[in-house]
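Morning F.,

Quick status update on the modeling queue. The single chain you submitted on Monday has been processed. Sequence for confirmation:
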Amino acid sequence: MTERLYYTDSYCACFSACVIERLAWKNHPAVVLDRTAFYPTSGGQPADQGTLGEVAVLDVVVREEDGTVVHVLERPLPEGVGGEGEEIEGVLDWPRRFNHMQQHTGQHVLSAAFEQILDADTVGFHLGAEVSTVDVNVPRLDPAAVAPVEELANQVVWEDRLVGARFVDADELATLPLRRPPTVEGPVRIVEIADFDVNPCGGTHVARTGEIGLIKIVRLDYRGSETRVEFLCGGRALRDYRAKNAMVNQLAGLLTVGHWELDQAVERLQDEARQLQHDLRRARKQLLKVEAAELAEETTVHGLYRVVWRVWERPGKLPADLRALAQELAQRFDVVALLVGVGGRAHVCFGCTEGRELDVAAWLRNACTQLGGKGGGQPHLAQGSAPATDPACIEAVLSDLLSGLTPDP
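Structure tokens below.
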């Protein structure tokens, strides 16, 4: 079995080891070492990365059948390198390892704070590439209730408490005030935050809570009987604050207000936008009436029907505008309206006065089929769309439809 150096020293970033097995792992070369500081994906914590010799370590996993630590490589190690009697040097990506140490120890502090303040147990943990999460067994956790939890967690960070890790036997384990029971048998590795938390864990951790730097809860996600808490620690929290501070200052500059006035400025903009939208809707309705009257002057007679047809080229018209125009023409002027707007797609709307013995939905389906699209609706109003095409092609389809209209005998 591989000696796992990270169990006793999370700060071990360089080590020497011998290769005891070469294998393939999911189409990548891989090796097993007699000792390693590379942490494998486990317990919600991602694997370490780094190099073995000059070869990049892409992933580190535990082989289920025997618990062996497998190092997945970018390319094979040269033959003979790291073999019997010849050691190979392993080097961790230290910023990645320390980042994980900050997040994982921060999670222990945060979970203990949730238990002590809200009697909320952590039932899940995930350390992601950008954000970490804990799932607590409280449905729809109130954001106001989270503030004291965050305060306590950061108080523990600023007190720079000692963080220790050790293996204990069953007898000692029975005497410890564990936050949750172990999930493994035999000697159990315990991570203890002085006078605050004792928890079984095989992950990598900082030596003192002060190295976490800061714990910041950034989002609550409600998931049935649980609440998922997104949080950031240390360098991640600093980067998040830096990005958000830059954004706040940029917005304050654009709106020419102090950052403390941003909420009021946004409310004013929302009020103005609502009023402008109201004015725009009213203006569009008035414009619609004028445009419908102008179109009605272009009426042509086809059989028993007075027809208005028009194709608007790019940017065309929105489907809602076509529908409103068709309804206005049919209701006010008793005409059949065949309207098409060509934008990203060709949007088609046909309408006629309700109650006429005419099925414009059938016409529209016919037209859309010829144009390679589809649509439908009611006999007096139908809409559809087709891939954008040459307006002349669309006009030819409409002309073909109208040519079939003849007076009743």
